[in-house]
Write a structure and sequence with these properties.
415 residues, alpha+beta, 9-stranded mixed beta sheet, 12 helices, 16 strands, globular, binds (2S)-amino(hydroxy)ethanoic acid, binds manganese (II) ion
Length: 415
């Protein structure tokens, strides 16, 4: 591999710092779909893509799409990219690294007048985390032709529907404009997503990069327990129908069951007593459920057991339980041929290629329904913490990842 590219890591990290200045809240990094901060990031990405030498458009769902044309206009496109929305109080590299790194590589190739065998299509996906509309993979689902149009009428916490948010952001918000985004797989040479690992594996092994084998698929549910609100001072413990205590017992059942398989994880990330008061036994408690594993069978067996456990806890406690499935995404295997090509680029960069599954979901798992995908993981510092402002990575690792990415693009055949 020729190390002809400059060290792009520092530029990549400083672009991530610049994007992190745009947030929906003053004291943390939160960028939800369609907010002013989201639009500011979208504008900044479009500008950087243009400056790098790409033709740029903002598409009907708000994706920022940059194209660096191949020498041959008939050449297929190698797609790459990741999301620029965030979780609440998130990290600055989750998603963004996968947009900024390709931009930096294209800028370096353009500066030296180098074209690639394929057109490189860099996509800043507008929404993956589902923070505002609980609609994960909103943006990538449009490109694969699987956008859930019922979402257009879904309100956020303030009653603003997705369609209204799109129109306010200057997007059409219409079914035909979104349906038209579906890509023709015959025009694609595959998809590669570069992403911070968001875990400790590469850090513990002292490796800067990893090749992803498969991407875990989540089952997500919205739960609510209804008991009886009553006086905290006069209701004997044996006579309570405490909704929050029931959910607490259900949470421990999730934790016990999901500790039983290596790649299985279960999380109650949200737990809320509406209109709760310090001196009232909770009459209602809402909660979320996220269960995922390295394969669907392990995950689905755990989901069945958890649902049975929650039902039996509700019955024993005399409370009502409702659980609604809000997302189910199958695990997505990465394409062996792309993984091998990527592993070859990693090895030629002097790093022993290490293969690992992804416990986190990514846009690549949606794009895998359209074209073969692969993912390059970059080491995550601070013990591998992510979905947390302490998420960090090094410029040296970003430089190495950029070299591997550039080589992967150079080795992607046009035919
Ligand atoms: O939940 C996930 O794994 C991703 O960060 N959306
Ligand atoms: Mn994330
Ligand atoms: Mn992500």
């Amino acid at each position: 591999m020729n190390h002809d590219l400059p060290d792009l890591g520092p530029a990549i990290l400083s672009m991530a710092d610049a994007l992190a200045r745009h947030s929906d809240q003053p004291d943390a990094l939160t960028v939800a779909y369609g907010t002013p901060a989201h639009r500011a990031v979208q504008t900044q990405l479009a500008q950087w893509m243009r400056e790098a030498g790409m033709a740029v458009e903002i598409d009907a769902v708000g994706n920022v799409v940059g194209r660096y044309a191949a020498a041959d206009p008939q050449a297929p496109a190698l797609m790459t990219g990741s999301h620029f929305d965030t979780v609440r109080d998130g990290g600055r590299y989750d998603g963004r690294l996968g947009i900024l790194l390709p931009i930096a590589v294209v800028a370096a190739l353009h500066a030296r007048g180098e074209r690639l065998p394929c057109t490189l299509e860099v996509v800043g996906f507008a929404e993956e985390e589902g923070l505002r509309f609980r609609s994960s993979f909103l943006a990538s689902s449009a490109l694969v032709g699987q956008f859930d149009f019922a979402l257009l009428d879904k309100p956020d916490a303030d009653g603003c529907t997705l369609r209204q948010a799109m129109v306010e952001a200057g997007l059409p918000g219409t079914v035909p404009s979104i349906a038209a985004l579906k890509r023709d797989p015959a025009r694609l040479a595959g998809f590669i997503e570069v992403h911070i690992e968001q875990g400790p594996v590469l850090l513990e092994r002292g490796l800067p990069l990893g090749v992803v084998t498969s991407i875990a698929g989540s089952v997500r549910m919205a739960g609510s327990v209804t008991g009886v609100a009553s006086h905290a001072g006069t209701t004997p413990m044996s006579m309570r129908k405490d909704a929050a205590a029931a959910v607490a017992e259900m949470l421990l059942a999730v934790e016990r069951r999901c500790a039983r398989a290596p790649t299985l994880v279960g999380t109650v990330g949200q737990l809320h007593v509406p209109n709760g008061a310090v001196n009232v036994v909770p009459g209602r408690c809402d909660f979320s459920l996220d269960i995922r594993a390295g394969d669907d069978a392990t995950r689905d067996a755990a989901v069945a057991d958890v649902l049975a456990a929650c039902e039996s806890i509700a019955t024993r406690r005399g409370v009502q339980l409702t659980l609604t499935r809000t997302m189910q995404v199958p695990c997505a295997p990465c394409a062996p041929a792309l993984m091998e090509r990527l592993a070859g680029c990693v090895a030629d960069a002097g790093v022993s290629p290490f293969r690992l599954p992804s416990g986190a979901g990514h846009d690549a798992m949606m794009i895998a329904r359209l074209t073969p995908v692969c993912m390059l993981f970059v080491r995550c510092g601070n013990g591998g913490i992510s979905h947390n402002p302490r998420e960090t990575m090094s410029a040296e690792d970003a430089t190495l990842a950029a070299r591997v990415f550039a080589e992967f693009a150079r080795r992607t055949p046009a035919g």
